Amino acid sequence: MSVRHIVSSAIGLALATSCYSAASASSLPLLGATAATFAVLGGAGGITSSGATTINGNVGAAPTNTIVGFPPALITGGGLTTTAMAQQARDDALVAYNFLALQSPTQNLTGTDLGGLTLTPGVYRFSSSAQLTGALTLNAQGADNAVFIFEIDGSLTTANSAAVYVINGGPSDGVFWQVGGSATLGNDTQFEGNILANTSITLNPFASIGCGRALAGINAASGAVTMANANNVAIDAGSGCVGGYGGGYQSTADGGFQLIGGEVIGGGSTNVPEPASLALLFGASLSGLLIARRRVRAPATIT
Question: At what angle do helices 3-18 and 285-295 cross, to 10 degrees?
């Protein structure tokens, strides 16, 4: 895609998200009405499960709704969807992916293993791939609308027995992993949050997303979700997991998004400045242009 198209897309999304008011906010989450109901979503590569996986939420793929291994894979609190519904979910996920990709980072963690870190609400940037070895703790600091965003240009990979823990938060918190490539969860990984991967997602044996989603094929038509034995993915598995950590943001009447309650996300594993407010971030076309040029990452488009 040319720089001109990158800039146009960035400015268009910036203008669309800048004109909001508290009075115009609706209850729709960042993921949209349809994608929010999905636990697992694939592209044309479909969804494959090779064992006794359990999924809490809808399951589907588009533009080719190829689903293999159901049963023995079990779906609770949802079902296998039509191609049309899965395509709408991909459209919703694309909007969320592009919005997440344009958030201003509070800290650059490129080259840093996430294992062993304790992070507070913020936007964490990886200009290449991201690795998790060991445990990552996300401390919501008592906020029910805390937001954690991970912007990853390359792939996301977790080692065997890796873990993500969300502490001191509530069911309306948001945890989002915006992945420019593919995501792979190693054996026995205990993961949390919503993975929005441009291409594919792989869950190795006994890997789980205790509260969140595996949404693949955001951009690549061949994107697939591949699951092995004893995986678990849940968007509503109890009082500690309501909405699959898809909270924090809500839509506005004019098609934009705003933080619930007007909270500003900030913090980090070290002292870092808070990001500008969303109104300032998206209100100026020049800011959108600079972001697009600096990061050279065009919003995705569904193919």
Answer: 140
